[in-house]
Design a protein that fits this description.
Oligomer: single chain
Low-confidence stretches: 1-6, 19-64
CATH topology: Rossmann fold
Largest sheet: 10 strands, mixed
Mean pLDDT: 85
Number of helices: 9
CATH class: Alpha Beta
Strand content: 15-25%
Keywords: Hydrolase, Signal
Protein name: Esterase
Shape: globular
CATH superfamily: Alpha/Beta hydrolase fold, catalytic domain
GO molecular function: hydrolase activity
Strand order of the largest sheet: 1-2-4-3-5-6-7-10-9-8
Number of domains: 1
CATH architecture: 3-Layer(aba) Sandwich
Distance between the termini: 49 Å
Pfam family, one: Esterase_PHB
Helix content: 25-40%
């Protein structure tokens, strides 16, 4: 039964993704979500070629090839690695590839940002789609891109919707192992390690930050599903479509370590208001959840501020302050679907629409610090 539900979850998710790609002009036409036997397709009549295409053919111009991300264009170095969880009693073995981007002339003691891709993506797609490497070149920070394998999940989805020792927790702990290994190898500032993700990557980033708060100074979530509302694939799909099944904060105690004093988790959330994959209300529900995590009453939130009104960069920003800075920030983006805002629109699940999400996240991250983990000299 569980296998059937998992198949339904990913089958429906793929169809919704195709619907989104159609809206962007990136995929084949969507034929609907209805069940029943498939009907034979009628042979379509050939449509006359558009004048521009005819003119291009006459000039001998080939149609534009699909864009393929290429790390050779990066100014810094892009290197692949493999991480295997150590064999421990009762631990579920995980093997993950990950990629490290090192900007030119990166000094010792620089900050580090971990980026997690979404379903049907890879590390390089997210790197090029967000253009985060360009920001790293300017600002001086190390980038780490863990990558889900197709063996681990055939659509490269992180198991955020199965928070148990054999799935979501095992992946979160493996990513934390990558964080530790890379931080030590590259001698980064361990008080300034941040994590962010898109869609399934956003929800997994939150899981990593909640399980290993001693390593993560701040969290970024773009188009992520509400937390703690799923224990399996079918519940994950329901959380994506409809948000929290109960008061959002009620789901959080099960995800936050109870055996240690939780140090707090500054977080920035970005959500498109026309997202057809994740319920747009998830942004406000995540803000409520992270307010609970940080012990800050939600009614302290400042009135929403609106930026770039009337342009493709328009968004609203709501801050939940703690002291002199925002502990949780929510950016809601009108007109944006299920995509990284202000990214490279040639790459799936990234859109030119909206503000530069990479810049918004980095501005939020760069002033945040965490005490170094025990046993690690900063």
């Amino acid at each position: 039964m569980q296998r059937k539900l998992s198949s339904l979850f990913f089958s429906t998710a793929r169809k919704v993704a195709r619907l989104q790609r159609t809206a962007w002009g990136l995929g084949m036409p969507f034929t609907g979500l209805g069940g029943g036997a498939a009907k034979p397709a009628k042979r379509a009549k050939a449509k006359p070629a558009a004048p521009a295409m005819v003119a291009a053919r006459r000039r001998g111009l080939a149609p534009a090839a699909p864009y393929t991300p290429d790390p050779s264009a990066f100014a810094g170095t892009w290197r692949g690695h493999v991480y295997r969880t150590p064999p421990l009693p009762g631990a579920w073995p995980v093997r993950l590839s990950y990629f490290v981007y090192t900007p030119p002339r990166l000094p010792k003691g620089s900050p580090m940002l971990v980026m997690l891709h979404g379903c049907e993506q890879g590390a390089l797609d997210l790197a090029c789609g967000t253009r985060m490497h360009r920001l790293a070149d300017r600002e001086g920070f190390l980038l780490v891109y863990p990558q889900q394998s197709q063996r681990g999940q055939r659509h490269r989805c992180w198991h955020w919707y199965q928070p148990d020792p054999a799935h979501g927790y095992a992946e979160a702990d493996a990513i934390a192992g990558i964080v530790r290994e890379t931080a030590i190898d590259h001698q980064v500032d361990t008080t300034r390690i941040y994590i962010a993700g898109l869609s399934a990557g956003a929800s997994m980033a939150a899981l990593v930050a909640l399980r290993h708060p001693e390593w993560i100074a701040a969290l970024g979530m773009h188009s992520g599903a509400v937390l703690g509302s799923a224990q399996n694939a079918s519940e994950g799909l329901r959380a994506m479509r409809y948000g929290a099944a109960r008061a959002p904060a009620q789901a959080m105690p099960s995800l936050v370590p109870q055996d240690v004093a939780f140090p707090g988790l500054p977080a920035i959330i970005l959500q498109g208001e026309r997202d057809s994959v994740v319920d747009p209300r998830s942004g406000t529900q995540l803000m409520e959840q992270l307010a609970w995590v940080n012990g800050v009453p939600l009614d302290r939130a400042a009135p929403a501020q609106h930026y770039a009104v009337g342009t493709v960069r328009a968004y609203s920003r709501t801050d939940l302050p703690a002291g002199r800075s925002a502990m949780v920030t929510l950016c809601e983006i009108p007109g944006l679907g299920h995509a990284w805002s202000g990214g490279d629109g040639r790459i799936r699940f990234h859109s030119r629409q909206g503000p530069d999400a990479s810049l918004l996240m980095w501005r939020f991250f760069k002033t945040r610090r965490r005490e170094p983990p025990a046993g690690v000299d900063d």
